[in-house]
Amino acid sequence: MENWMSLFYVRPVAPHVVVNALFLYSFLGWMMECVVIRLERGVWENRGFVHLPLCIIYGFGAILGYALLRPFSANLAVLYVAGAVMATAFEYLTARLMLHFFGALWWDYTNHRWNYKGILCLQSTLGWGVIAVLLFVGMHRAVFGVVARIPPNIGAALAFALVCAYALDFGLSMRRAVQRADAQPSGCAHGEGRIAK
Hints:
Blueprint: H1 15-41, H2 56-69, H3 76-102, E1 115-116, E2 120-121, H4 122-148, H5 152-183
Antiparallel strand pairs: 1-2
């Protein structure tokens, strides 16, 4: 089973290592979102869908992005463009799913220049390209280096605990989000919630 796990790192790793890396990326993404909002709005705000300090979209984005972008990693310019396009497409798909299921979009780019319906903006697209390059320049190796140092039995227990805690929190948060969507008038636009990616 570990051989196919080399898709997500430079060498085969145990599944619990990938899970723990995903959650570490999710925490780092949550921190980045909080800092950006603090700089933009002057307030601290929980930027995750759940109560835990996690933005799981960053975890999946980093792990899957690494696997999908590896063919472009030898050329940083191509990697930058491919990463920007792929992450923007992922952001657009996520936005459409949120609008479909909740009738609201939990981020709003309407105050940014060159935005598309508040869903996408040039500034974020350019930022995604930078993050894609940083992923291959050293971030991915550093994240996996941290989680790979955890003893296997502790790492497996930690991965299991994180999955269970996130699943419970996600279920509660999903119920709250659906109740909020049901309480809103139909046709409600984006920017209604405090929650982000």
